[in-house]
Amino acid sequence: VNLLDKRLAIVTGKGGVGRSTISAALALILAGRGKRVLVCEVNARERVAPLFGAKPSGHQATEVRPGIFTVNVTPPEAMREYGVMVLHSRTLYRVVFENRLVASFLRAIPSLAELVMLGKILHEVRVEEAPGKPRWDAVIVDAPATGHAVQLLRVPQALLEAVPPGPLRRDAGWMDELLRDPTRTGIAIVAVPEEMPVSEAIDLDGQLRALRLPLTDLLLNAMPERRFNPDEGGILARRRADSAPVGPAAAIAHLQALRAAEAGRYGQRLREAISLPAVEIPFLAAERWDQRAVGQVAAALER
Amino acid sequence: MSAVGESLGPKRIAVCVGSGGVGKTTVAAAIALRGALQGKKALVCTIDPAHRLASALGLAALGNKEAVVPEEMLRQAGLTLPPGGSLHAMMLDVKHTWDELIARHAPDPERRRRILENRLYQQMSRALAGSHEYMAMEKLYELATERDYGLIVLDTPPTAHALDFLDAPHRVLDFLGDESLRILGPALAAGRIGMKLLHLGGTYAARALARFTGAETLNELAALLQAFEGMYDGFKARAAAVRELMGQSQVGFVVVASPQPMSVDEALFFHRTLTEEGMTVAGLVVNRATGPLWPESAPLPEGVELARAAGEGSADLWGRVALTVAEQQRIARAERAEIARLFAVPGTPRVILARLESDVHDLGGLAVVASRV
Questions:
Q1: What is the pLDDT of residues A193-221, one digit of tens each?
Q2: Which of residues 269-298 of A touch B (CB under 8 A)?
Q3: Taking CB atoms and an 8 Å cut-off, how many pairs form between chains A and B?
Q4: How far is B85 from chain A (nearest CA, A)?
Q5: CA neighbor of A6 nearest in space, from A218, A219, A179, A191
């Protein structure tokens, strides 16, 4: 997975395709290589920390297992951090930004919430503990679902077009540069082998390409195993109306074979439409989504 | 008919909410199709920035205008609508809806032009987060009050943003109705922003604010606010009307979930929020549940035993079959626990839609879902 070599790894895709689990798995792989990793969720109900059996981190980056930190980036917190950074004073921030009138103004500035959230994330990529020693070896972004991810990632470019010169525009400039730099940044598109996620992945690929962002990987998640060959499929289809135990067992297996075949077709369609190296992650019949399941996804990603 | 179908019967507006990837769009389209099959003029409208609905309905593209799904296509899928029944679909164009809203409220063409040409407005109407949600409410109101649909089904984006969508009219009321902003609009335009803010925010507040956004951005904003002057009341009345509509008895929310922990968490959160807001939740839909194919109480089969009973196929094949049954039982068990957690909510009508053999991506598939709702 090319994403593993980047300082900034962005995981995108339709809702429900497993972005959080894959983000967690990527972090697990990197931490296993001795890296210090931050996983950012964007204004979300936190999922990554719970996957590691930890409680949600909130807006403070918190270590959820050795080498892996998570944080939930929310607009008010990101705004405060950004404001304090720009004004160099917490008191001044309070005086200015927590003024009701000023708050109304800030709300009216287009996409400011997106800008400050993205700014916070990208700041984490750049920040150094000491000269030449970045705070994080890698920052993984569990991006919002398709349309909202595009809104988030296009903010710097949109601001460069819309906003007159000034501090906002200057920030949009360095953010845009980092986002588009293929040596530092990589974006993966995650899809599961179903109609809508596949259509959306193809759509997303087009939109991110139009923004000239560095796409690196196509991750095909939850791929059912090809467990039965066509002859066996024939036997299963023929016997599925039998009485128990053969009938119900054959019916269940037949359904699995149908899904695997369908998934194969969707996988094919994705590979044809999206010219990115593809990695398949097998479907996991996990009863619980916990660290063990994340480990299995990580193993598949490393294969 | 399911309890959810019954509960939606008298509703004229159905709003589908839930986390991403649960098949909300499919359920929304199926509810509309069901209405059409009952002889209603039915419309399904999506506000998701991703283009889902068109592919669910087998249409090439949907615009900001309603498009009728051709009867020929329905016939090909084996569907015949009764007299009066028709199925329509549209995808919300946010920018277009904003422009229509401005045109509706602007007192004269000059004012309209000033707003439409303002750079911040252009940005806001195209890309502002939350803008989708607000315009969906606006469009829904327009469709509900100015068109003669017997059923309008609205599909919404995933949870975090769908809450924005409930809040959107509130927020607009807050912002546009803010007295201090109204006073400030002209002052800003006249370059007196510094003085006003000095009174309000302490000594260097104005300079600090300008340092944050850039003075020109503030000026642009001032121009926009000034152009909006006099339009506040119209917006306010409209937003209040939209909000009022959502609480009416003709509107029913449908909370859609998949039988997975995260989706159920969000569905419960949604149910609670909607109820607190005084909205009617007309149904809980669990979509794509794993069917009960192996009797729950029966012991799991062994490969050898299956091979013997079947009398054909290798032991290895039936070993893999046994593995598949065990896997499916594990999934079904986990799903049952999640469904029970969701259905612990008292009173609300509910339905479980079993996962179909194949993905739903055409009218035929939609019809099957429609019949089960």
A1: 988 789 889 999 999 999 999 999 999 99
A2: 285, 287-289
A3: 236
A4: 27
A5: A179
Write down the ipTM of this complex: 0.83
Tell me how far apart the 2 most distant CA atoms of chain B are, in Å. Answer: 92
pTM: 0.81
> Inter-chain contact B51–A227, Cβ cutoff 8 Å?
no
In whole angstroms, give the CA distance from residue A213 to residue A215: 6
Burial A17-51 (b: 16+ CB within 10 A, else e): bbbbbbbbbbbbbbbeeeebbbbbbbbbbbbbbbb
Contact B81, B34 (CB under 8 A): no
Q: Do B298 and A255 touch (CB under 8 A)?
A: no
Q: Are B27 and B369 in contact (CB under 8 A)?
A: yes
> Phi-psi region for residue B78, left (φ > 0), alpha (ψ -120 to 50) or beta?
left
Q: Specify burial of residue B10 (Cβ count, 10 A radius: 0-12, 13-18, 19+).
A: exposed
Of all residues in chain B, the percent with pLDDT exceeding 70 is 72
CB B27 within 8 A of CB B287: yes
> So what's the pLDDT on residue B202?
36
H-helix or E-strand spanning residue B318: helix B315-342
Strand residues in B156-280 grouped as ranges (E): 251-257
- The DSSP bridge partners found for residue B251 are B13
**Interface check B364 vs A, CB under 8 A:** no
Residues B230 and B259 sit within 8 Å (Cβ to Cβ): no
- Give the distance from residue B144's alpha carbon to the nearest chain A alpha carbon, in angstroms: 26
Token representation of residue B292: 């009960």
Contacts of A203 in chain B (CB under 8 A): 50-51
Dist. CA A230–CA A253, nearest whole Å: 12
Touching check for B116 and chain A: CB below 8 Å? no
Q: What share of chain A is helix, strand, coil (3-state, %, to 5)?
A: 55, 15, 30
Among A260, A255, A223, CA closest to A236: A255
The stretches in chain A having pLDDT less than 70 are 86-87, 92, 95-111, 162
Residues across chain B = 373
A299 by Cβ neighbours in 10 Å (0-12 / 13-18 / 19+) ranks as middle
What secondary structure letter does DSSP report for B191?
T
**pLDDT tens digit sequence for B219-244:** 676 677 677 767 777 777 877 888 78
Reply yes or no on whether the pLDDT at B58 is more than 70: no
Parallel, antiparallel, or unpaired for β B86-91 and B67-68? antiparallel
The beta-strand segments (E) located in B97-198 are 151-155
Q: What is the radius of gyration, based on Cα positions, of chain B?
A: 26
Radius of gyration of chain A (CA): 22
Backbone angles phi, psi at A130, to 5 degrees: -140, 160
Q: Which residue in B29, B26, B7 sits closest to B258, CA to CA? A: B26
